[in-house]
Design brief:
- The complex is a heterodimer of chains A (about 325) and B (about 270).
- Chain A is mainly beta and about 325 residues long.
- The two termini of chain A are about 30 Å apart.
- Chain B has about 270 residues and is mainly α.
- Chain B has one domain.
- In chain B, helix 1 packs across helix 5 and helix 3 packs across helix 10.
- Classes of the chains: A mainly beta (about 325), B mainly alpha (about 270).
Chain lengths: ~325, ~270
């Protein structure tokens, strides 16, 4: 009897371990929800620092970096034990960050200080602070590791930082209140969302010039409610998915023609997005409704919406 | 009554019902136009009205069009059952009802055949409506279209039984407008067809209770869950029980001793 029970528990544990796991930061609960992407169920909730927002895994998925904004630190979560094992110096009010492909340098946007802080995760020390525009928010590092791009919400600019010397090289003026930037897989294009402008700009990395601006229009939804924030680009170059904030929809954009092909209804105030490992699923964090919608990226259909904590914000997925 | 006779009798009544339906193309068109107008015009204005709560059987947020589709299936059944009730009154006035009821088959069986035939004709309209809805991207899970069939049949049997009972009470064709005002519209509007019950409760506890006790609500919910390959047991129970009661009452009312004698001189 006991043996059978142990076998059953072991089988359950193996099944759980065989699934992609999505980590979702809950801004108002000071927790992370762990979502099993096979069963679409929350399997664990982990207590972390105050107001967790941006989250990102290191290269081997052993550590999860967490922007604990109101704790003024970046925390390191040991994924195996589910424990916060260290705090990194981060500067004040860290909101979003990006990890360099060297798996060592973390670029952190400090919203209140108008700087980008560069932290060496190995030495746990700040190695540079770069002045940028007012209210820095979005961060991205190009796949080749050459460029670090930061958005500043009030200055309405993208700031191009040379990753080799941490010097600000150039600025690109974009729509009002840029919130998020995402490089294409080959690094040739950069997509930037403008929350108040209600647009997404596509920028050529080599020229740092806008080549396309994408507008959104949803029947029955007022234009003011269309506030693009999170962006995810599929590796096959087919789609760009754009979270439209209080419009409660995700736009599916053809990444070749830049035409919006579909709008998918998700939860309230959809903020950020995350792919499963094979990109067959896209997750959306719906802040106001406190849930995560799961989209089938092949059928372009919302499969399920799962309740997580209060005000889910960032999403990071750990593969099998 | 053996099986062959029973089948022969049923096929006869069904063919007549189908023939009548196919002959009246305007009736077929209006049966489809009505729910399609609701779906494509009325629902378009309320597109953003929902999407704020997830209620079973839905697993995610849905548009208003998706929400009202089961209710519109319900209204197809409701109108068809009332149309059938109207045709009973017409048959009675024209004398063809007398021919039918003087058949050697049991009267209860004849009436059952009549409402089953109407239900099967309704089924055709329901699937045609859903096919058109699919062209406008209102698509249900594939298995839902299969499980819809028994749910629609049961809901239709309930509404046709109601229609049969009403046909006893309607003395003349002219009175049919009263049925629309006092039966069809209240049943439809005071149900979960257009708005979820929790929304009704937000506006008025009384209206919520009326909606909750309206059998049409349960028929719509049975259809809604079936469209997502789920079973709503309470809805099934209520619909089946109300069907049994209405059917029994209608068949009893049609028995010769109970039938109101019109135009009989006072003794």
């Amino acid at each position: 009897m006991i043996r059978a029970l142990l076998l059953a528990i072991s089988a359950t544990c193996s099944a759980a371990a065989l699934a992609d796991l999505a980590y979702i930061s809950n801004e108002k609960d000071n927790t992370l929800s762990v979502l099993d992407l096979d069963t679409f169920e929350v399997t664990a909730t982990i207590e972390v620092g105050a107001r967790p927002r941006g989250i990102v895994f290191n290269r081997d998925y052993s550590k999860l970096y967490i922007c604990a904004s109101d704790s003024d630190s970046v925390q390191i979560l040991d994924v195996k034990s589910g424990q916060v094992i260290a705090d990194l110096p981060s500067g004040e009010d860290p909101e979003q960050f990006a990890l360099h492909p060297n798996d060592r340098h973390l670029y952190i946007a400090n919203e209140d200080d108008a700087v980008v802080t560069v932290v060496d995760t190995r030495e746990k020390s700040v190695i540079a602070q770069i002045d940028v525009g007012v209210e820095p928010e979005g961060m991205a590092v190009s796949p080749d590791g050459r460029w670090v791009v930061n958005t500043s919400e009030t200055t309405n600019m993208l700031h191009w930082i040379d990753a080799s010397n941490h010097q600000l090289i150039d600025n690109t003026l974009v729509g009002q209140r840029p919130r998020h930037v995402e490089f294409s897989k080959d690094g040739s294009l950069l997509w930037a969302s403008s929350e108040i402008g209600g647009t997404v700009a596509v920028i050529r990395t080599d020229q740092r010039k806008i080549i396309q601006q994408i507008d959104f229009k949803i029947a029955g939804v007022h234009r003011d409610k269309i506030q693009p924030v999170g962006i995810k680009l599929s590796d096959d170059g087919r789609y760009a998915f754009v979270a439209l904030g209080p419009a409660n929809h995700v736009a599916v954009v053809n990444a070749q023609t830049y035409a919006v092909e579909k709008y998918l209804l998700v939860g309230r105030r959809v903020w950020h997005l995350g792919f499963s490992a094979d990109q067959s699923l896209l997750l959306t964090s719906n802040g106001v409704s406190g849930d995560v919608s799961i989209i089938d990226t092949n059928k372009l259909k919302v499969l399920k919406t799962v309740r997580v904590g209060r005000y889910p914000w960032g999403i990071a997925v750990k593969p099998l | 009554m053996n099986l062959a006779t029973a089948s022969y009798c049923f096929l006869g009544i069904f063919k007549r019902e189908l023939h009548r339906f196919l002959q009246q193309r305007a009736r077929f068109a209006s049966a489809l136009v009505r729910p399609l107008l609701w779906l494509l015009v009325f629902a378009a204005g309320f597109r953003a009205a929902l999407g704020i709560a997830i209620i079973p059987p839905y697993e995610t947020y849905i548009t208003y069009e998706v929400y009202i589709t089961p209710g519109l299936v319900g209204i197809i059944l409701l109108f068809n059952s009332m149309q059938s009730s109207l045709s009973m009154v017409y048959d009675r006035e024209m004398g063809s009802m007398k021919v039918l009821l003087t058949s050697p088959m049991p009267r209860s069986y004849l009436l059952l055949c009549k409402i089953l035939s109407t239900s099967l004709v309704s089924l055709l309209q329901v699937y045609t409506f859903l096919l058109i809805a699919a062209l406008f991207d209102i698509v249900m899970p594939a298995s839902g279209y299969f499980w819809l069939l028994p749910a629609v049949l049961l809901a239709s049997l309930m509404l046709c039984s109601l229609g049969l009972l009403l046909s006893i009470l309607i003395k003349q064709l002219e009175n049919f407008a009263g049925v629309m005002n006092f039966v069809v519209f209240p049943m439809f509007f005071l149900s979960s067809a257009l708005y979820p019950l929790w929304r009704m409760r937000e506006s008025s506890e009384f209206i919520y209770l009326v909606c909750l006790y309206n059998p049409f609500t349960h028929a719509v919910e049975l259809i809604r869950f079936a469209l997502y390959a789920s079973l709503n047991l309470p809805a099934l129970g209520v619909t089946a029980a109300v069907t049994a009661v209405l059917l029994f009452a209608a068949i009893s009312a049609y028995q010769p001793r109970n039938r109101p004698q019109r135009g009989k001189p006072p003794s």
